Amino acid sequence: MSTENSAAREIAAAILPLVGGAGNVTSVTHCMTRMRLGLADRSLVRDEPLKALPDVMGVVEDDTYQIVLGPGKVARVTPEFEALVEEGREAHPVSADELAERGAAMRAARKEKNATPVKLMLRRIANIFVPLIPALIGCGIVAGINGLLTNLEWLPSLTPALTAIASGFMSLIAVFVGVNTAKEFGGTPVLGGAAAAVIVFPGVADVSAFGEKLAPGQGGVLGALFAALLAVYVEKGCRRVVPQALDVLLTPTLTVLVSGLVTLYGLMFVCGELSTGIGHVANWLLEHGGAFAGFVLGGLFLPLVMLGLHQALIPIHTTLIEQDGFTVLLPILAMAGAGQVGAALAIYLRLRHNTSIRTTIKSALPAGFLGVGEPLIYGVSLPLGRPFITACVGGAFGGGVVGLFYQLGTSVGSTAIGPSGWALFPLLKGNHSLGAIAAIYALGLAVGYAAGFLATYFFGFSKQMLHDLNTEQEPPAPVAGSEIEDTPPAPAPTPAPASGSLV
After folding, report:
1. Sign (positive/negative) of CA torsion 367, 373, 374, 378?
2. Taking residues 403-413, what's their average pLDDT?
3. Do residues 364 and 57 lie in contact, with contact meaning Cβ atoms separated by under 8 Å?
4. pLDDT at residue 385 in the model
5. CA of 393: how far to CAs of 355, 386, 388, in Å?
6. N or C: where does the chain have the smaller number of CB atoms within 10 Å of the terminal CB?
7. Angle of helix 434-459 relative to helix 335-350, nearest 10 degrees?
8. Is residue 153 domain-shared with residue 262, that is, in the same domain?
């Protein structure tokens, strides 16, 4: 076993008994920074010893129990953890009935707490679009490389191939949205994809709706989402009324036919107008709001992430990328991460005698510079309280800079969603040269770092906080809910953000 695998297995072995053992784990997944566990009985988790593990940056409770390990590490630890869980189950098998009975009350209480209509809607939106992000990132970077080679007139024989690689996924993104939508809402995924595929079929140019010829791709990802959603409801209706002997023939046929006709003669036109409106609103907001719009967007993004409301922006980003080739909102929102980094640097200097927090900052800063802000948010600024607010101030000033340049005529966009910080440079695109766009984005980051640092250094701590935190070696307990306090709060559960954080 390699050294890396051995270390990952040791971390997994340390975590497993603290979450109730193999018998208490019902599911294991991970995202960029967190290992997400389904638990049969939440009461078996030993939170404080778990948070005290050197490799654990924090925990987050949502529909799953999420352990923040950081980028890279989480991808190595999760498979080892899964293996240990399987080994434990084989040694001490627990029936599904026993697990269900033991955890029913806890799961019901947690579901009731988190199942507000808005949260459920946003979570479903995230479940549809977040799985597409790796392809968006990969194709976006290839598009950036292709643009660079084209501008420099290098390797002209290669650029057509890179264009095909970068554009292939985006040309069929509606199909993937349709598949994921049907899967999320309980339909047959391939039927959702078939309903959405109508939108990108070149032959729709021969169809007229509302007195106008349709264009392939009209309606975009929003049209695909609604087409697949309609297909789900048609399919479920057919399952209820179609005789079982005819189900295999009639249900798919009626699902594709009804949803396809409604898509062609209604959804494509309506969603096309809606998508165009989203693009116009985003451009108008930055053209007329400029620095103020950027200031507000950059300053509010971290609270939106904390509340899970940022997920509503995912289809907007995707629509802008589909229409213009880039989203102008992401570089502004990415400034929130710059404010977070600046705040962390200020905290590091202010808390000279708190080795625990300084160690957390040192381990989380590299990820923060690359745009993965969760370790700093949930491990440092949010538990401290006021530094979370001053980090938002840093993001606001950085966003204001990028917004100002948009108003002056230079748009800074991203060809994909997901990365931010330094990791966004390969994805930058706009209406001027790459050098000019990168310089503006870099200036925004620098202003975000500086504003977050200064705001936190001078206003992020009360005298009492500085006294307590410089004499107390243990990190402060997280703040309950989203309230921010002037003094270190008493231990409380870490707030539960929604998944898919883009910072």
Report:
1. positive
2. 94
3. yes
4. 87
5. 26, 11, 9
6. N
7. 40
8. yes
Helix (H) or strand (E) holding 430: strand 428-430
484 half-sphere exposure, CB direction, 13 A CA radius? 17
C-alpha–C-alpha distance, residues 494 and 114, integer Å: 14
If you average pLDDT over residues 334-339, what whole number do you get? 95
pTM comes to 0.73
C-alpha distances (whole Å) from 277 to each of 178, 196, 213, 317, 415 are 22, 21, 19, 13, 20
Is residue 73 included in any domain, yes or no? yes
Q: Are strands 25-30 and 34-39 parallel, antiparallel or unpaired?
A: antiparallel
The residue among 322, 484, 338 whose CA lies nearest residue 415 is: 322
From CA 348, how far away is CA 230, in angstroms rounded?
A: 53
One domain for residues 18 and 78? yes
DSSP state of 487: S
The dihedral sign for the CA sequence 232, 238, 244, 247: negative
Q: What percent of the chain has pLDDT over 90?
A: 50
Strands, E assignment, 204-341: 208-209, 212-213
Residue, of 497 and 111, whose pLDDT is higher: 111
Q: Annotate 207-242 with DSSP letters as a single string.
A: -EETTEE--TTTTHHHHHHHHHHHHHHHHHHHHHHS
Both 439 and 320 in a single domain?
Answer: yes
Same domain flag for 376 and 460? yes
What length does the chain have? 503
Please identify, among 85, 115, 145, the residue that sits at the C-terminal boundary of a domain: 115
Of 126, 176, 145, 193, the closest CA to residue 322 belongs to 176
Residue 88 belongs to a domain with what CATH number? 3.30.1360.60
Do 187 and 279 belong to one domain? yes
Of 344, 339, 416, residue with least CA distance to 376: 344
Q: Which 3 state secondary structure label does DSSP give 327?
A: strand
Beta bridge partners of 61: 65
Q: What is the 3-state secondary structure (H, E, C) of 19-82?
A: HCCHHHEEEEEECCCEEEEEECCHHHCCHHHHHHCCCCCEEEECCCEEEECCCCHHHHHHHHHH
Give, in degrees to the nearest 5, the angle at Cα 165 between 160 and 167.
Answer: 90
Range of the domain at 200: 134-283
The total number of structural domains that make up the chain? 3
**Domain shared by 95 and 244, yes or no:** no
d(CA 480, CA 12): 27
Distance CA 495, CA 112 (A): 16
d(CA 260, CA 493): 47
Confidence of residue 502 (pLDDT cuts 50, 70, 90): very low
Active site residue 271: no
Q: Is residue 423 part of a domain?
A: yes
Retrieve residue 18's tokens: 């603290």
Q: Is residue 494 part of a domain?
A: no
